[in-house]
Amino acid sequence: MKKSVKMNYIFNLGYQLLLIALPLITTPYISRVLGAKAIGTYSFTQSIVTYFTLLGCIGLGLYGQREIAYHQNDALQRTKILYELILLKVISIALSLGIYFIVFQTFDEYRSLFYIQMIDIFANVFDINYFYQGLENFKKIIARNITVRFISIICVFAFIKSPQDLPLYILIQSLSLLFGNLSMWIALPNYIVKLDHVKLEIGKHVKPTLILFFPQIAVSIYTVLDRTMIEVLTGNTEEIGYYEQAQKIVKLALTIVTSLGTVMLPRISNLFADHDMHKIKEYIYQSLHFVMMIAVPIMFGIMGIAPNLVPWFLSEKFMASIPLVMMTAPIIVFIGISNVIGIQFLLPTRRQKAYTLSTIMGSIVNLICNLLLIPGLLSMGATIASVIAEASVTAFQLYCVREDIDIKKVWKENRHYLLVGACMFGVVYALSVFLTPSIMHTLFIISVGVVIYFVILFILKDKYIYTIMQTVKDKLRVKSS
């Protein structure tokens, strides 16, 4: 990977970790103060709000990032596209808010919460992260958001004291989203130009955004609908609470893997515009290798440390989340691979149809599995359904690119990571069960797991590890000379 790609990966990884890790700083506190029922209630109402957020955004995030990437070096054209997409989003968000206001009137029990969460939908009017991502300027995104996120954390610790403070907690989360998006506008004048006598063409963006909108709706079915279905099929918000917290832990780890996709989409889009398919495939093979090298140990690591992590991190009230964390962990590998194939290859090369079909198939699989498994297995049923759905999406996408990517070659070069990861899991899980749950023991177990994994790779002479070591040696040699 070029230096800019590596740096952008680091910046975007920092940003994505910021979005999830900072709320997770409050998770041990919130788990104890609000409890499973209140957290489950928030997760359920948030799942409903997410549908309307998706409706309002209509696929503009990925589409905008791609289109800005196509015109990175054309200030006039990228400014025109930005204005058009902002106007389109204003219209779609207004329609979404109108429908939302009508629908949530039917939820008597949660009506006050839905009123507050209207802010979430409105906040997306000001979301222009896709513009900076398209320009591959990830540093700006992190710098502007970090202050807002820290303020929200301070507010949580200062004002949230009991389950009765749930509405205030939701308000803090919603306002942090709004002000975080608004902060992105401060530096915007430096990247756009004045449009004089330029006709804005909003209509031309409707069809391509809708093409990307449908797979996002499909994805939401197996990432959000599970929470809704647990409530509808069981009426048990505590189960949603267990499920939500387990998902948070796994999604934090998943961020390390999927951040590469956000960085590579604009880079590959730019290469596709230059008709450089050879370089695109080179990047894809590198991405797959990188994803497998880190996704596999993260998956086994999360499975292994769950018994030691959950009791102190979420509190003993969430012991039911331990098996959910362990069962959810495989999605780290499945989503990691589908992120490379779908986000880094299919979308930038304008193969939206295959991407859309994969997500639709995944949503259908998830819906069927949820209906079959949730009534009997509750949150575990939703967890199993999600894993099966993600596996089906990955399998279908691999089938779609079989003529472009040598799958056998990828498997042959990366299968040893599974064996090494399994060896690491055995040691990590044994330590996790044997040692008393505590932050120090969890950190110790993680350290042992990391050492075992990379030492074995070094012994096996993994070429990727040796490449990294050689790069570090070369840089140290240059600095010392």
From TrEMBL:
Its placement in the membrane is given as: Multi-pass membrane protein
Location of this chain's protein in the cell: Cell membrane
Q: Which InterPro entries match?
A: Poly_Biosynth_Transport, Polysacc_synth
* Keywords tagged on the record: Cell membrane, Membrane, Transmembrane, Transmembrane helix
Kindly name one Pfam family recorded for this protein. Answer: Polysacc_synt
A GO cellular-component term linked to this record: plasma membrane
Keyword Cell membrane in the entry? The reply is yes
> Where exactly are the transmembrane stretches of this chain?
45-64, 85-107, 113-132, 141-160, 166-188, 288-310, 322-347, 354-374, 380-401, 417-435, 441-460
**Would the keyword Nucleus turn up in this protein's UniProt record?**
no
Which PANTHER family does this chain map to? O-ANTIGEN TRANSPORTER-RELATED (PTHR30250:SF11), PST FAMILY PREDICTED COLANIC ACID TRANSPORTER (PTHR30250)
Please state what the protein is called.
O-antigen/teichoic acid export membrane protein
